[in-house]
Backbone:
């Protein structure tokens, strides 16, 4: 907590220094807020927390250019820089580098947004497809271990066994990801806009490989435990759910076209207005895409003032679907964003459905919602900065409306049951039979149900743009997790 206050104090000091540098005259708007002009620094928290990945640490910075202040609190230009890593044992060697840029004045009448980033996830969440059709077995998080290195083993044994901190390797896989995009937005009529952009993703997937330990063949002595430390990701490949030609990932090169209606009063901290979007995403092979796919998405956000500038009811309704039945498995978690934010993992986690485990809800068509009361209970000025604190209470949910194909293919079954080592990808017949027998335990023949969670949060808000959030959410169903706590930035929407 002391570190958090230090971060907030540093943010205010840096912004004050930026204001003082030019000895700017302090002016106020109709709401009594100080009108920010020129370039302002908004350092993000050096430390954040994500229940799915642990503590996040690194260097994070926002630069806002408000120009002459005419459009405050909306900046004319903004930069976002991030270099960070995660501390959770299962997410060691996970880090990311991000550079984003947003400009409203460089091209007359057109807003340009550029995002780029490299993401290394050594142990990314993978719980299968189609929501509750994929069984989440918590007993798979409690294996025992043998150590490949005695010295490292003692250290890991103390951390994982004696302190009860076991890695969750069964529901993990490794991923390297490069993302880049450029989006353009232009006004058609008042509050009505066209959107167009090019999005690029290169993804490499691999099995989860723990550092310094391996799972014993059958520590739980159950009928459904998979020997050899096999993960759910490995099983999906063995069952043919993840096709062999997609198992290692691929490249997605897409063109996105859409329309947007935006009547928000403030972009980063709205208290009234509507923000709605609809897009078509085309990723054809002729554009360089490895596995051709076409999608569409629609999002409706509404900010309803109950008590002006104090109490707001905000909700978001979204739907993302696949045109046809072809979509590579590795593209399912991403939900599309136009503008300064890159496509995010989902659904589940602090950017989509809070409380749910990251990537818990995946399918060809997914619908989701967020409903939230936001109460801004105090406003004051400190060190020439506009400061506010806000409380929130929320409920989030998601549902798979069209399933990804989870069929245990005949060819995969024949390979697993083969006594010919050359044909059996598991390496031996007994292990192949064991892997084949797991299918009915982890894949249910049923439709998805409602995935929901509810929670509350607290936010620190500076100059309507720099926002630090503390949130906790509890799931309604244990199949979605036990609940989660987050420390991060901004509002969810």
Residues:
């Amino acid at each position: 907590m002391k570190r958090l206050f230090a971060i907030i104090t540093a943010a205010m000091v840096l912004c004050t220094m930026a204001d003082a540098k030019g000895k700017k005259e302090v002016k106020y708007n109709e709401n009594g807020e100080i009108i920010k002009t020129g370039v302002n620094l908004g350092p993000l928290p050096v430390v954040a927390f994500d229940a799915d990945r642990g503590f996040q640490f690194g260097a994070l910075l926002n630069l806002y250019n408000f120009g002459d202040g005419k459009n405050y609190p909306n900046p004319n230009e903004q930069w976002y820089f991030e270099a960070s890593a995660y501390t959770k044992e299962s997410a060691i060697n996970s880090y990311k580098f991000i550079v984003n840029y947003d400009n409203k004045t460089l091209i007359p009448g057109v807003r340009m947004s550029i995002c780029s980033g490299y993401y290394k996830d050594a142990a990314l969440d993978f719980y299968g497809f189609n929501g509750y059709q994929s069984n989440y077995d918590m007993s798979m998080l409690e294996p025992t271990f043998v150590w490949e290195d005695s010295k490292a083993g003692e250290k890991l044994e103390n951390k994982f066994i004696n302190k009860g901190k076991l890695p969750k390797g069964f529901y993990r896989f490794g991923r390297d990801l490069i993302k880049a995009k450029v989006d353009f937005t232009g006004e058609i009529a008042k509050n009505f806009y066209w959107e167009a952009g090019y999005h690029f993703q290169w993804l490499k997937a691999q099995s989860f490989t723990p550092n310094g330990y391996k799972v014993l063949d059958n520590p739980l002595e159950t009928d459904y435990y998979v020997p050899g430390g096999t993960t759910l990701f490995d099983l999906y490949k063995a069952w043919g759910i993840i096709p062999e030609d997609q198992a290692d990932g691929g490249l997605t090169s897409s063109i996105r076209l859409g329309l947007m209606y935006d009547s928000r009063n403030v972009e980063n901290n709205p208290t009234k207005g509507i923000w709605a979007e609809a897009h078509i995403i085309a990723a054809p092979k002729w554009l360089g895409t490895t596995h051709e796919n076409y999608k569409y998405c629609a999002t409706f956000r509404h900010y309803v003032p109950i008590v002006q500038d104090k109490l707001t009811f905000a909700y978001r309704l979204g739907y993302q679907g696949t045109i046809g039945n072809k979509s590579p498995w590795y593209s399912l978690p991403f939900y599309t964003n136009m503008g300064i934010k890159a496509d995010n993992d989902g659904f589940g986690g602090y950017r989509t459905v809070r409380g749910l485990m990251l990537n818990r809800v995946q399918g060809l068509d997914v619908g989701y919602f967020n409903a939230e009361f936001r109460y801004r209970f105090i406003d004051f000025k400190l060190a020439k900065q506009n400061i506010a604190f806000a409380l929130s209470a929320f409920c989030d949910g998601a549902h798979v409306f069209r399933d990804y194909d989870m069929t245990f293919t005949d060819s995969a079954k024949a390979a697993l049951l083969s006594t010919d080592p050359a044909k059996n990808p598991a390496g031996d017949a007994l292990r192949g039979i064991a892997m084949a027998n797991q299918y009915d335990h982890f894949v249910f023949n049923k439709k998805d149900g409602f995935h929901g969670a509810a929670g509350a949060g607290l936010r620190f808000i500076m100059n309507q743009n720099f926002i630090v959030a503390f949130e906790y959410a509890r799931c309604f169903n244990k199949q979605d997790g036990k609940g989660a706590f987050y420390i991060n930035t901004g509002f969810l929407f």
About this structure: The first strand starts at residue 39 and ends at 43. Confidence is low (pLDDT under 50) at residues 1-14, 143-148, 163-167, 212-228.
